[in-house]
């Protein structure tokens, strides 16, 4: 063995290692800065994350930190000279250069502002929360009126739905049209279906980034708002074949049993005294015809998306919607003055908490109200303990009970640059429902004489949740010509197997929480 030659080789390699490390480091930073990066906002004192803080990027786009305090910067925003202005009610505004983020380990700490409650006075007196709320109500139509100028909003919307079955029982008590082998297979399929529902509750996440154009048109001496939408990207993440819709779950269950019936025959379904007029069958020609008919009646995905989005914005417009009675009907609530804090414009904001006073009031929460114009800058609300919305209890009569047992949200508004009133910047709306169904079900063959094919009892109990997050990334004025030129095109929703941050490369999106990041589609 040539020891000298080997040592020489080792020395050459050892000299080459630092160059490899340097090259690897350069490539690492180039790669990391070419992707969206994640930043966390915390309280400088407690080190706790600060959810729903606003991040202004070079005065162009406005992001939001998620429920865990994180936000992400797109590739286009990661420029050293860009300035981030972080604001949150109750904390001092903070400016940070993008070039400083790495030195901060991508953690931004905000410092709380301190107020002495005794120093807060209005016209020499302690603020009266009921006088403040009267002023809020009187100024709603002014503070939240829509502009007549054409506008363009870049919006990101995330919707998550989940169904949590607690108990699913299917008891077959009559089967005139089944062989013993078929009945055994039906029981096995139904049991597998119900076990799968309980073991792996169906969940679905949908993300969408779009531009929404709004302008006013006049017809018959009346003014109407008109909208156009361009969907830039949309994704869905859910288990293949799963659904969170109660109607679709019912259809899946019915198909599970129907596939064992005679595929050449037609059936109808009867539940108790209620009979269905719909004809069902596994015949290919029948279902093909039915699918075409159904498709012709349905709205397009683009039309439905635009309608749902504009309705969401309208329902959360405090000047037009009456859904938030703790703002629109203050006489129903008891208010308490909690103090004053700074706004991001360094104005003062009153902080009021509220509780139900009358039986029709349902919510508890907190309001942040601008002292100068009495605009609600932020509203936090949730159902009071023990309260339900839209409660329908026909458990003993029809075996049905439905109750909306969860309703909570956050609304945040920003001042428009064009006319100083406000638009919806961020909204988080979460709804939960309890379902109980205990009913008999019959599959009846359609012949000259009705013939019972299958008779069973179905019991289902569970909960479902729906959460919508809405973020207005940028709000800007455009011209009527700009809106006229917009061409609306149908779009496709990209199905994902797991959350992939690369899908939003170059765009801004609400940073997903840990639960969404962990979610993977089961093969």
Automatic annotation (TrEMBL):
InterPro entries on file: CarboxyPept-like_regulatory
Native source species: Flavobacterium bomense
Pfam families tied to this protein: CarbopepD_reg_2 (PF13715)
Gene Ontology MF term list: carboxypeptidase activity
Protein name as annotated: Carboxypeptidase-like regulatory domain-containing protein
UniProt keyword terms in alphabetical order: Carboxypeptidase, Hydrolase, Protease
